[in-house]
Amino acid sequence: MGPDVSWKYYSVTLVIIFLNFINGIFHNKPCKHVHPKIHEVIHGVHIEPAHILKKRSIDQPLRILLYYDDSVYKLEEDKFELINNTVLPEAVSFWEKALMVRSTENVIRLNRKCENNQVFYRKGDWYSYCKNSCETRTLCGEVQVPEEHLDACRTCNASGMNCTNHDNAGTGIIGADFVFYVSAMETERCSKGQTVAYAAHCQQESALDRPIAGHANFCPNSISTKPQELAILLSTVKHEILHALGFSISLFAFYRDSEGNPLTPREDNGKPLQNTKLQTRQWSDRVIKTIIRKDWVVHNGTIEREVQVMVTPKVVKEVRNHFNCPELEGAELEDQGGEGTVLTHWEKRVFENEAMTGTHTQNPVYSSLTLALMEDTGWYTANYSMAQPLSWGKGLGCDFVMKSCKHWIDNKRSNQNTLPGLARKCNKIVKTDVKSYKLKMF
Ligand SMILES: *[C@@H]1O[C@H](CO)[C@@H](O)[C@H](O)[C@H]1NC(C)=O
Ligand SMILES: *[C@@H]1O[C@H](CO)[C@@H](O)[C@H](O)[C@H]1NC(C)=O
Ligand SMILES: *[C@@H]1O[C@H](CO)[C@@H](O)[C@H](O)[C@H]1NC(C)=O
Ligand SMILES: *[C@@H]1O[C@H](CO)[C@@H](O)[C@H](O)[C@H]1NC(C)=O
Ligand SMILES: *[C@@H]1O[C@H](CO)[C@@H](O)[C@H](O)[C@H]1NC(C)=O
């Protein structure tokens, strides 16, 4: 009986692997969140001082303003209607219901880009000043920020003196906590891979570093108006919005505790250290820890596997509870896929159909884990009634989440407990780059 069972086991596994492979080719659209580089993000937008903001409870529903670049109006009519009437309103209203922020004064005026990104800060002054001059245009992603959203140009001369306010402030953004500049341009990034949309933040406010402006670009040629693809498009747009709101390698170093204090120490300039290799700010191990998993069983022996784990408090509580594993250090982040996928998503092996993993699979869910992460930014509280249930791995214990899949399958098999479905859970296809797929047999 033994050999027969295992033959069936293997053939079922192979069929499932094959189906997954086919499925992978057609449906596993990878998210390439190309995070904004240090010089692409403008800091120091003054709304209110930190000592006032920190005291407010985080209880106001997030308000997102959409601003369309002209390119959006140039979309074919059916694509425009899909984006304007269905996709954006649903995606935006999802996060507006799911997230709350501190109330702030009603007007946000974004900072102007400085010539050569050279900025002065003056003691006792809330505002930042450009060295010599402000750029004539301030971009957010591909979109030019309209003059009416911009604060006055403030400059000092090259020695940081004779500072002036050029008195050309716009009316500002009224009644919103975050502004999204939406474009629809067939950019270079669109043609690489199967990108439908991408988004990132572009400005942060000065008191608590919350991102307050971002851009989202739709790739016109990749938008499908087929009804059966609507769910994927919607989930993708929600996913991209979340990168801009907080789940990004470019924002980890700015996360704060529940009192509003930084989780990563700051330099004299008030910002975390730069990581020149990743072109981002380096977070501390209060945000992400590197953990070595010893005795990681692979097909031909064992290896030591290094994993990156999100260790902020609510995330830790959430994953321990989900897997029923009280010793779990935190939630593992994606380690494959290169820039854009790595570290900016939950690990696929561990979280499968959570929507913030790096590739789209069927039935994506925004679970309480992702909401917990948003709370752990220190900028939001979450409405957990918006969380969608994640059944993957639920209650399966420490072995499922802390040991390799091979270890786990082997163990279950020796326990006479084999279920073909488990094989599917462990043998999966991951996309390692745009063109090649490989079996991940960990
Ligand atoms: C775009 O959507 C907004 C609100 O969802 C609506 O008021 C407006 O009429 C739409 N524009 C067009 C051209 O359909
Ligand atoms: C919380 O989510 C529920 C739906 O799950 C929604 O009805 C409610 O309005 C949300 N609360 C806030 C403050 O947005
Ligand atoms: C900046 O302005 C101050 C006077 O306000 C002047 O003394 C100084 O020379 C100026 N520096 C430069 C580089 O123009
Ligand atoms: C200070 O700057 C203004 C314009 O920015 C200029 O007109 C003025 O001459 C400068 N004053 C000095 C002392 O450099
Ligand atoms: C297992 O195989 C890989 C190549 O597939 C090789 O690099 C590695 O050294 C092998 N490990 C052991 C423990 O034999």
Automatic annotation (TrEMBL):
The chain crosses the membrane at residues 7-26. One of its GO terms (molecular function) is metalloendopeptidase activity. InterPro entries: Peptidase_M8. The keyword Ribonucleoprotein does not apply. The keyword 4Fe-4S does not apply. Keywords: Hydrolase, Membrane, Metal-binding, Metalloprotease, Protease, Transmembrane, Transmembrane helix, Zinc. One of its GO terms (biological process) is proteolysis. Its EC number is 3.4.24.-. The active site is at residue 240. Zn(2+) binds at residues 239, 243, 345. Its cofactor is Zn(2+). Binds 1 zinc ion per subunit. Pfam families: Peptidase_M8. SUPFAM superfamilies: Metalloproteases ('zincins'), catalytic domain (SSF55486). GO terms for cellular component: cytoplasm; membrane. Belongs to the peptidase M8 family. This is Leishmanolysin-like peptidase.
